Amino acid sequence: MKSIQILIASALACAAVATQAADLVVIANPAVGPLTKEQVGDLFLGKSQAFTPVDQAETSATYADFYKKASGRDVAQVKATWSRIVFSGKGQAPKQVADSAAMKKAVAADPKAVGYIEKSAVDASVKVVLTLD
């Protein structure tokens, strides 16, 4: 009986998480062209310096959802990757902003910045360069 209750609770928790996952888009300055999922993954994991990545706060659900969709990695794996890069002196982790409004402001102000927000938060100040499903 107890295992059935645990199973039901787990299923409900998974359903709640699934309904919270928003459609995410990668945004850039309006002058930037489209990017591929591979390019975005490389940018946000320190493998490319073509643009300047900007992250949401690592405690946000958007951060975790983005990295899972863009690179297939969870938060712990992303943190480990950036720790290795920073401690080896090969780079700095992306700057973090508090929310989607701050992300749009940062990306609109820097022609080399690339970030990510919920699709519903897009406005004319930024350009969608990739939609993550």
List the topology elements.
Elements: H1 2-20, E1 24-28, H2 37-44, E2 52-56, H3 61-71, H4 75-87, E3 95-97, H5 100-109, E4 113-118, E5 127-132
Description:
The structure is a single chain. The chain has helices at 2-20, 37-44, 61-71, 75-87, 100-109; strands at 24-28, 52-56, 95-97, 113-118, 127-132. It has one domain (22-132): 3-Layer(aba) Sandwich (D-Maltodextrin-Binding Protein, domain 2). It has 133 residues and is of the alpha/beta class. It has a five-stranded mixed beta sheet with strand order 3-2-4-1-5, sandwiched between helices.
Mean pLDDT: 89
Q: Structural class of the secondary structure composition?
A: alpha/beta
The termini sit apart by 37 Å
Q: Identify the quaternary structure here.
A: single chain
| Main beta sheet strand tally, sense and closure | 5 strands, mixed
Order of helices and strands: HEHEHHEHEE
- Numbering strands along the chain, what is their spatial order in the largest sheet? 3-2-4-1-5
CATH topology: D-Maltodextrin-Binding Protein, domain 2
Radius of gyration: 16 Å
- The tally of beta strands, per DSSP, is 5
Architecture (CATH level 2) name: 3-Layer(aba) Sandwich
Shape verdict: globular
Number of helices: 5
Low-confidence stretches: 3-19
Quickly name the level 1 CATH class.
Alpha Beta
Note the beta-strand portion.
Answer: 15-25%
Residue share in helices?
40-55%
Name the CATH superfamily assignment: Periplasmic binding protein-like II
Taken together, the total number of domains comes to: 1
